[in-house]
Amino acid sequence: MNRQKNRGLIILLILTILVNISFAQECDTLFNFNTWQMKGNPGGSWQILDDNNIINESYIFEPTLFVNRQDLLNVHIKGTISVESGQDVDFIGFVFGYHEPTGIGINNIYNFYLFDWKSKKGTVHNYVAKEGFRLSYYNGKINEGEISPLFWSPYNVPPQRSLIASKYGGDLGWEPYEKYRFELSYTANKILIKIDDEVIFDHNGCFGPGKVGFYCMSQTKTHFENFSVKSFLNFTHEPTTACVNEEVSFLPYYPLCSDLPDFVDSLYWEFGDSKSSTELFPLHNYKTDGTYDIKLTVYKEGECFDAINRQIVIKPNPTVNIGSDTIVDACTTITLEADNPNSEYLWSNGSHQQITDIYMISDTTVYVDVVKNNCLGSDTINIKTKFLPISELKFPNAFSPNGDGLNDKFEAVGITDDVSKFNMQIFNRWGQLIFETYSVYEGWDSFYNGQASPSGIYVFKVNYINGNTCTGLLPYSYNGTFTLIR
Questions:
Q1: Long-range CB contacts (< 8 A, 24+ apart) of 43-48?
Q2: 132-142 β-sheet, strand order
Q3: Which range among 19-33, 148-162, 181-195, 234-248 shows the weakest confidence by mean pLDDT?
Q4: Are residues 389 and 471 in contact, defined by beta-carbon separation less than 8 angstroms?
Q5: Are strands 264-270 and 290-300 parallel, antiparallel or unpaired?
Q6: Are strands 433-437 and 304-315 parallel, antiparallel or unpaired?
Q7: Is residue 10 predicted with pLDDT exceeding 70?
Q8: How far is CA 483 from CA 25, 31, 240, 360, 445, in A?
Q9: Sheet containing strand 276-277, strands side by side
Q10: The whole model's pTM is what?
Q11: Partner of 257 for a Cys bridge, out of 90, 188, 201, 387, CB 3.0 to 4.6 A?
């Protein structure tokens, strides 16, 4: 990244870019075949008709190639191919990512990608080649005896030959005397091949630089002309389809496969929503759903530029409404619905259903996440709990311990089931503690140290906690007096 920063790729002002647009142009450069070299079978015969017009005169079985001298990557190559003879129906094609062997022979190491095209089905040494297209990767030592299985046959024979893709059919072979428009886009992460604007192969991966060139095997009078090259970037974005407000990462190249090509001077992104950026790897999010036209303008050396266009679909997030904040009675159930049928749900209570029940025992916050078409919607409500009333304990102002079964003890009166941490103390008129209990079910029978206490006024103190999950827990404290009557 330091190299890119030093070249000032990121700091170019938008104003400067806009000014340069009027002077820039897309630049295709014609190849000069006078600088190319013959490879493969040393008996091949390539006749240069002029700087950009060459014909293969060979009629030999072993592959013959004619390649440039410069390693290329992130290029778009185009030109026309024709076979100006009806003598044979074998292989024509194009090589790229080419690293040089010395020729066909003992222990020659090959390393290149090959797109080859056969006109008609044919058999050599019991190997059958079908009419149509193949894309292969060659990587290894190939001797002369392996030409048939590695170049003629359709077999996958790694590592020397890995068959990447093929398209066969009776109507897919080339025809003699017909000109075909050939296009190759070869980048750090893509191989895209077209014939007459029809996509033949579109293959993703990580690819390195190499030479490019023409290929023939057992086919004479193959004409290559008007071939040009243009450097370009092939951008992508992740994710390919996003949701509203989801962050989208835009990549002008794949950092895991390559560095930013040297030919790039600056970048200008237009995201289709009136927003733009000159950053190398911009991040962007869209506020509304829809289809947006993205444009990347790549400014290159020599006042050339590429304008690359893509579309991105932004999907709406699901609308989720589980209601407004509310108050409900404790120990009741509230039913909430997230709508959006056929979605994925996750409630705060762990439920994965569209509808969920919440049993209320205390104030709570309820949320739900809804995923529909891989987009997320959420909602949250606060629910307050209204507790049921608590029945407080009562204490008599007098009692008569005469054994008649009525009011014989001084004790708590009321609902005692939910009482906890109870403590009651009783004092005589001199402040002396004469009775204490920690049980709400125990009362004072007037006795102290085995003797019945005299009539009179006594003081009591009570502390306790009352309630449950439906009423809540409340502390109570009382100080009062009562009269003991004999």
A1: 44/216
A2: 37-40, 64-67, 211-217, 91-99, 108-118, 132-142, 161-168
A3: 19-33
A4: yes
A5: antiparallel
A6: unpaired
A7: no
A8: 110, 120, 86, 45, 13
A9: 241-243, 304-315, 290-300, 264-270, 276-277
A10: 0.65
A11: 188
